[in-house]
Amino acid sequence: SQSRNIPPITIKENAFTLAMYEEKFINWEKYWEKFDYKKYGRKSELWDSKFDQIVDKYAVFSLGIKNIYMAESIKKDLLEIINIGCGYPRAWYMFGNLSFFTEDMVNAKIFVEKSLKSLEESKFSYFYRFYAANRLMKIYEKINYDFETMKTIQKKKMRYLALAAADERFTDGNQRYYVAAFLYNFEFNNTNRDLLGIDIFLDEIKRLENLDPWIYHIVMGRYHINNGWAARGTGWAREVSDEGWRIFRSELDKAADYLTRAHNMHPEFPEAAQLMITIQMARSDDLGERAWFDKAIAAQFDHFQAYYNYLYALSPKWGGSHQQMLDFGVACLNTERFDTRVPDVFLQSLKDISKDYGDEKWYEPFTKEGVYKNVKRYFDGVLKQPVKESDYFKILSRYALYAWACGEYEDAKKIRKMVGEKFIPEVASEIKIDPKTFIDDLASR
Fold this sequence. Notes:
single chain; mainly alpha; 21 helices
């Protein structure tokens, strides 16, 4: 529907943001890690205080603020306490997980296997078992382990993820942390249900007592969305059979029922609303898409998945237009909330539009009138934020890239010169350009 207009983004005073969510998450993770150590750990003055410090650092790392130096530093601390006798399964898991991150697959496999075995033999939370099984799957995939073993681990992983849902750590406003793990790790794929263990997951979660109803409704909503898409397929509408459409609509109705109820239970959580955007998109309900988008960002202003879903709903494939996508990107830029990722949606809209132009004409959306002015607004806003030195040079390198893409070669060269030898040509891959092509073309201008 080409008539869709794009209103400004509403910003609530004191809006809840990702930074607030992350701060709460880190405190929650530290609390439970220390709680479980007191309950299950073999305590000793040789390593108690050291483990306490490790937990503080590891919680920040596991959130996603990851770099190789931090990983190596925590690994060193862990090895120190493991070598003097700390046989705590969570310490083994952390060491194995960090080894995976630093690409030391030998230690990753040894320590995560050892941790999972010990966690399974004790009364630890199913959530920890899920994480160990999940990491082991990733390790086995990396080292091309045998298929049958991987299948067994995958089934365990799905069982533990289901059983973890009723853990007391996911009550009292902490339900989002379970759903984050569920949505991130759980790929529904009906083509190989046995390998993925979806049936095991659903059987277990339906049998749970004391399961938080919001968690259950989100899980079931997501499940029915997937069932609908499995029946419809991802091709063009004209290729879908009558039976495919019937199942698709029926499954989406079930999903909408679960998700609407979930949202009514906790309107302060954005997950149900952001999933509802995709349902309204498939129903070609423009007003519904925007209404659910507004509900999602009222719960968390910078819930990026909601922005991404709505941007996709505005694409020509779903009855929107490139102009509407760009207008939405500009509306996100106009919030001027550079302390969040919301203005990033402007660049995302340009990249998504560019993909539709194909390899030969990818640059056309960047060179349209007024685009570079907004690119400048974006980078000038980002550069006013406090950033680490390493990020500063990456941002400037990206600035040069986007100036180049917009055909503003003098600005691109000037920025490139400012960065000097700290220039990062690899940023070119962000717009699917070979770094060498970018560098060579800029040098030839």
